[in-house]
Write a structure and sequence with these properties.
The protein has a domain of 48 residues. Helices cover 28% and strands 0% of the residues. Helix 1 packs antiparallel against helix 2. By secondary structure, it is mainly alpha-helical. The chain is elongated and about 70 Å long.
Protein backbone atom coordinates (compact mmCIF):
# COMPACT_ATOMS: atom_id res chain seq x y z
CA UNK A 1 0.00 0.00 0.00
CA UNK A 2 1.40 3.38 -0.87
CA UNK A 3 1.76 6.19 1.69
CA UNK A 4 -1.07 8.24 0.19
CA UNK A 5 -3.64 5.43 0.55
CA UNK A 6 -2.54 4.78 4.15
CA UNK A 7 -2.85 8.51 4.88
CA UNK A 8 -6.38 8.64 3.42
CA UNK A 9 -7.42 5.59 5.45
CA UNK A 10 -6.08 7.14 8.68
CA UNK A 11 -7.74 10.46 7.86
CA UNK A 12 -11.13 8.75 7.36
CA UNK A 13 -10.73 6.87 10.67
CA UNK A 14 -9.80 10.08 12.49
CA UNK A 15 -12.77 11.94 10.97
CA UNK A 16 -15.14 9.16 12.05
CA UNK A 17 -13.70 9.15 15.59
CA UNK A 18 -14.00 12.94 15.82
CA UNK A 19 -17.62 12.80 14.64
CA UNK A 20 -18.46 10.17 17.26
CA UNK A 21 -16.74 12.20 19.99
CA UNK A 22 -18.67 15.34 18.98
CA UNK A 23 -22.00 13.46 18.98
CA UNK A 24 -21.26 12.02 22.43
CA UNK A 25 -20.24 15.46 23.75
CA UNK A 26 -23.35 17.09 22.25
CA UNK A 27 -25.55 14.47 23.95
CA UNK A 28 -23.92 15.26 27.31
CA UNK A 29 -24.30 19.00 26.74
CA UNK A 30 -28.00 18.66 25.89
CA UNK A 31 -28.52 16.50 29.00
CA UNK A 32 -27.01 19.27 31.12
CA UNK A 33 -29.29 21.84 29.51
CA UNK A 34 -32.33 19.63 30.08
CA UNK A 35 -31.86 19.96 33.85
CA UNK A 36 -32.94 23.64 33.49
CA UNK A 37 -30.51 24.52 36.30
CA UNK A 38 -28.57 27.74 35.70
CA UNK A 39 -25.15 26.32 36.61
CA UNK A 40 -25.62 23.34 34.28
CA UNK A 41 -26.89 25.50 31.41
CA UNK A 42 -23.94 27.87 31.73
CA UNK A 43 -21.51 24.94 31.90
CA UNK A 44 -23.14 23.36 28.84
CA UNK A 45 -23.02 26.57 26.79
CA UNK A 46 -19.37 27.16 27.73
CA UNK A 47 -18.50 23.58 26.81
CA UNK A 48 -20.29 23.84 23.46
CA UNK A 49 -18.49 27.10 22.71
CA UNK A 50 -15.04 25.76 23.65
CA UNK A 51 -15.55 22.58 21.61
CA UNK A 52 -17.14 24.54 18.71
CA UNK A 53 -20.25 22.35 18.88
CA UNK A 54 -23.35 23.72 17.14
CA UNK A 55 -26.32 23.12 19.44
CA UNK A 56 -29.08 24.53 17.29
CA UNK A 57 -32.36 25.42 18.97
CA UNK A 58 -32.30 24.95 22.74
CA UNK A 59 -35.42 24.50 24.88
CA UNK A 60 -35.06 26.80 27.90
CA UNK A 61 -38.75 27.47 28.53
CA UNK A 62 -39.25 28.82 32.08
CA UNK A 63 -35.55 28.38 32.87
CA UNK A 64 -34.28 30.25 35.91
CA UNK A 65 -31.17 32.06 34.70
CA UNK A 66 -31.47 35.03 37.02
CA UNK A 67 -28.13 36.80 37.39
CA UNK A 68 -26.34 34.30 35.14
CA UNK A 69 -23.23 35.17 33.18
CA UNK A 70 -24.15 34.36 29.59
CA UNK A 71 -21.76 36.76 27.86
CA UNK A 72 -21.35 35.83 24.21
CA UNK A 73 -23.66 32.80 24.54
CA UNK A 74 -25.00 31.30 21.32
CA UNK A 75 -28.75 31.11 21.89
CA UNK A 76 -29.83 31.54 18.26
CA UNK A 77 -33.40 30.35 17.73
CA UNK A 78 -33.67 29.10 21.32
CA UNK A 79 -36.97 28.93 23.16
CA UNK A 80 -36.68 31.11 26.26
CA UNK A 81 -40.39 31.78 26.75
CA UNK A 82 -41.15 32.87 30.30
CA UNK A 83 -37.54 32.49 31.40
CA UNK A 84 -36.18 34.45 34.34
CA UNK A 85 -33.19 36.40 33.01
CA UNK A 86 -33.34 39.25 35.53
CA UNK A 87 -29.95 40.91 35.94
CA UNK A 88 -28.36 38.32 33.60
CA UNK A 89 -25.23 39.31 31.71
CA UNK A 90 -26.01 38.72 28.04
CA UNK A 91 -23.43 41.14 26.60
CA UNK A 92 -22.66 40.17 23.03
CA UNK A 93 -24.99 37.14 23.19
CA UNK A 94 -26.45 35.79 19.97
CA UNK A 95 -30.23 35.75 20.40
CA UNK A 96 -31.16 35.95 16.73
CA UNK A 97 -34.68 34.65 16.14
CA UNK A 98 -34.94 33.50 19.78
CA UNK A 99 -38.39 33.20 21.36
CA UNK A 100 -38.35 35.41 24.46
CA UNK A 101 -42.09 35.97 24.76
CA UNK A 102 -42.98 36.81 28.34
CA UNK A 103 -39.36 36.53 29.50
CA UNK A 104 -38.26 38.59 32.49
CA UNK A 105 -35.17 40.56 31.45
CA UNK A 106 -35.48 43.28 34.07
CA UNK A 107 -32.06 44.85 34.62
CA UNK A 108 -30.40 42.47 32.16
CA UNK A 109 -27.24 43.58 30.36
CA UNK A 110 -27.77 43.04 26.63
CA UNK A 111 -25.17 45.52 25.42
CA UNK A 112 -24.06 44.60 21.91
CA UNK A 113 -26.32 41.54 21.83
CA UNK A 114 -27.64 40.32 18.48
CA UNK A 115 -31.41 40.16 18.95
CA UNK A 116 -32.23 40.34 15.23
CA UNK A 117 -35.71 38.97 14.50
CA UNK A 118 -36.29 37.77 18.07
CA UNK A 119 -39.79 37.61 19.55
CA UNK A 120 -39.92 39.60 22.80
CA UNK A 121 -43.68 40.09 22.88
CA UNK A 122 -44.76 40.89 26.44
CA UNK A 123 -41.19 40.64 27.76
CA UNK A 124 -40.14 42.74 30.74
CA UNK A 125 -37.05 44.77 29.79
CA UNK A 126 -37.40 47.37 32.54
CA UNK A 127 -34.02 48.96 33.20
CA UNK A 128 -32.29 46.65 30.71
CA UNK A 129 -29.09 47.78 29.00
CA UNK A 130 -29.68 47.48 25.25
CA UNK A 131 -26.89 49.85 24.12
CA UNK A 132 -25.51 48.86 20.73
CA UNK A 133 -27.90 45.89 20.57
CA UNK A 134 -29.18 44.81 17.16
CA UNK A 135 -32.97 44.69 17.50
CA UNK A 136 -33.66 44.86 13.77
CA UNK A 137 -36.92 43.11 12.98
CA UNK A 138 -37.49 42.12 16.61
CA UNK A 139 -41.05 42.00 17.97
CA UNK A 140 -41.35 44.07 21.15
CA UNK A 141 -45.15 44.28 21.08
CA UNK A 142 -46.43 44.99 24.61
CA UNK A 143 -42.88 44.69 26.01
CA UNK A 144 -42.04 46.82 29.05
CA UNK A 145 -39.14 49.10 28.08
CA UNK A 146 -39.45 51.49 31.02
CA UNK A 147 -35.99 52.80 31.88
CA UNK A 148 -34.31 50.61 29.26
CA UNK A 149 -31.18 52.09 27.67
CA UNK A 150 -31.58 51.92 23.88
CA UNK A 151 -28.78 54.32 22.97
CA UNK A 152 -27.12 53.38 19.70
CA UNK A 153 -29.35 50.30 19.38
CA UNK A 154 -30.45 49.28 15.89
CA UNK A 155 -34.26 49.39 16.01
CA UNK A 156 -34.83 49.34 12.26
CA UNK A 157 -38.12 47.57 11.48
CA UNK A 158 -38.58 46.70 15.16
CA UNK A 159 -42.19 46.32 16.31
CA UNK A 160 -42.61 48.70 19.25
CA UNK A 161 -46.41 49.00 19.58
Amino acid sequence: MNKFVVYLHRTKEQTLLNTLKIRKMKKKILALIATKEAKNIILALDLAKSQKIELGTIDLIWANLRGSDLRGADLRGSDLRGSDLRCANLRGADLRCADLRGADLEGADLEGANIFGADLEGADLEGANLKWADLEGADLYCANLEGADLRFANIKETILK
